[in-house]
Design goal:
45% helix; 558 residues; alpha/beta; 22 helices; 10% strand
């Protein structure tokens, strides 16, 4: 390829890349690469194209080529570590962190990051225990050391383990408290104390803060509460981030602002600047629908920015953080004595704490698609599939020879590959009876739930928003709750729906038998219609929850 031709093609690829037509850019850069295999500029761009095309393995290979040519290539090691982490290849990621530290390409925060890495898909129970023990040991080591560490939240952000710790069988109160102390030690900014002004207006000023108040689980769960609170008694602010994706729910909030129902803020990127904007609002209550999904918002929750701070079941785990005063939950969800699992004081709503709008589906399923037997689906994010759940799969297959069990692949197919590998090693699981679907659109997802004979709730961390969407068609979900909130959301929904003989079980064998019973039900359509009608009456747009929550919020402020 002539040099002039290569330059022209490179410019064309660059134009495609800028226009986000990543696949075309990738094709051209691959062609140029075949003629200039050691050209760093081509390799650099090619690695980015692979990344944006969700081809993490090829992005990884390309970055390794770059490092072999020039180990000091700016950002190559950092990007490689992040891509390895995205693929759950943590042992290799740690080796490159050690390499980067040795070559003085990385700073101290990478050493700490290495100590906090947790796998997403575990191979077995021993794997879980080893990871938790190593994490606990590493945290204690730094907490007990005299080493002075002063990282910057903006420039040296470390992914907190709060989210990843939630998906196993353990109570996380003590380790979450320990993590809070750990982050306060390495990030001095988190120890700031604000002297808050008293709100001088008669209304209660309440702010809702999340990266995900848009077309996301969090937006779906909390949109109704925000829009339906009595504006005569409450002045409402919503704090979005620059990462919040635009969507219909996001637009709904800005339409509400035009009608003087609330006020939206898009928080700046810098940690300190975010605080100033929120603190200037003199809020009575700052409400975090979830803490743990967003890196930025996790660390924001360390700073007291309102008289009272509340979190809730968008991520149903305690924060272990003294800055969070309350956790909003429901009498329908919690087990007896559940307060001992929380650092926050529990606020018990009489109903599920949401005003949930029913899904609007354009292409409704026909009756024939709703009545098929032997179709089992666990349409959850794959990191919820605990190793103990594998026993349930094997036993269902053994007892129902016609069973077809569905899961849904993650976008990058990372968790899918690891889970598939785990299934392959299990002699009790027949892979011919399992199918992993490619990612589905929102409407296709709900229709898939409708086509299933029965839905399988993962153990230890169960369904949440997906249950409410599945009730559009009324496909029953079998659930085995523990004493922890994270596994009890389906139970709470059934209680609100007042379902007779809800498929809530206490043992693995009971789970298996109940699932098979429903999947082979002779009158499956009648059963689904029963659940769907109950959802319409009791689950969706529950008007009783709004005055209930208003009373709770007024009680908090006093």
């Amino acid at each position: 390829m002539l040099e002039i031709e290569a330059k022209n093609k490179f410019k064309l690829a660059q134009k495609y890349f800028e226009d986000k037509v990543y696949l075309e850019a990738q094709k051209i850069w691959l062609e140029i690469h075949s003629y200039y295999p050691k050209n760093l500029q081509v390799l650099r761009n090619l690695s980015l194209a692979f990344y944006y095309n969700k081809d993490l393995e090829e992005a990884e290979k390309t970055l390794k080529k770059i490092i072999n040519i020039n180990e000091k290539e700016p950002n190559a090691v950092v990007m490689l570590i992040l891509i390895l982490e995205d693929q759950d290849k943590l042992d290799e990621a740690k080796k490159y962190i050690e390499f980067g530290l040795k070559k003085k390409l990385l700073d101290l925060h990478w050493e700490i990051k290495k100590k906090l890495m947790l796998p997403t898909i575990f191979s077995d129970l021993k794997d879980i225990d080893n990871a938790r023990n190593d994490l606990n040991k590493n945290i204690e080591e730094i907490l007990n050391s005299d080493q002075i560490i002063s990282l910057n939240v903006d420039a040296q952000l470390i992914k907190p383990v709060h989210f990843d710790l939630s998906y196993d069988q353990y109570d996380n109160l003590l380790i979450n408290k320990k993590c809070v102390n750990f982050y306060r030690k390495i990030y001095p900014q988190l120890n700031k104390i604000n002297y808050l002004k008293k709100n001088s207006i008669n209304k209660i000023k309440i702010g809702f803060i999340s990266e995900y108040l848009t077309d996301h689980t969090i937006g779906k769960l909390f949109k109704g509460i925000i829009l339906n609170l009595n504006k005569k008694d409450f002045e409402i602010q919503i704090f979005h981030t620059t990462k919040t994706k635009k969507g219909q729910i996001y637009e709904n909030f800005f339409e509400a602002e035009k009608n003087n129902q609330l006020k939206n803020f898009i928080l700046p990127t810098k940690f300190e600047d975010k605080q100033k904007i929120i603190a200037n609002e003199n809020l009575d209550i700052l409400f975090y629908p979830e803490i743990g999904l967003s890196l930025e918002m996790y660390y924001m929750s360390f700073i007291k920015l309102a008289t009272y701070q509340i979190t809730s079941w968008g991520h149903p785990e305690t924060t272990g953080n003294k800055t969070m005063d309350y956790f909003l939950t429901s009498k329908l969800i919690e087990s007896e004595g559940s307060e001992k699992y929380f650092s926050e004081k529990l606020l018990y709503a009489d109903h599920l704490p949401m005003y949930y709008y029913p899904p609007e589906i354009k292409n409704n399923l026909q009756k024939s698609e709703l009545t098929k037997n032997n179709i089992y689906s666990c349409p959850q994010t794959l990191f919820k599939i605990h190793p103990e759940f594998d026993e349930i799969i094997g036993k269902i297959q053994k007892k129902d020879k016609n069973a077809k069990i569905y899961f849904i692949k993650d976008v990058n197919k990372v968790h899918y590959k690891k889970l598939l590998n785990r299934f392959k090693k299990n002699k009790e699981i027949d892979l011919d009876q399992i199918e992993f679907l490619d990612g589905l659109s929102w409407e296709d997802y709900i229709n898939h739930c409708g086509q299933a004979s029965v839905l399988l709730d993962p153990i230890y961390f169960g369904a949440g928003n997906s249950f409410y969407e599945s009730m559009f068609y009324g496909t029953p979900t079998v659930s085995k709750p523990t004493q922890y909130t994270k596994s009890r959301l389906v139970l709470g929904a059934y209680r609100q729906m007042q379902i007779e003989e809800a498929p809530i079980v206490e043992s693995v064998d009971e789970y298996v038998n109940k699932s098979i019973e429903i999947a082979n039900h002779k009158n499956l359509l009648d059963l689904k219609n029963y659940y769907s009608e109950k959802a319409k009456k009791k689950l969706y747009e529950n008007k009783d929850i709004i005055p209930n929550l208003e009373k709770i919020f007024k009680g908090v402020v006093g």
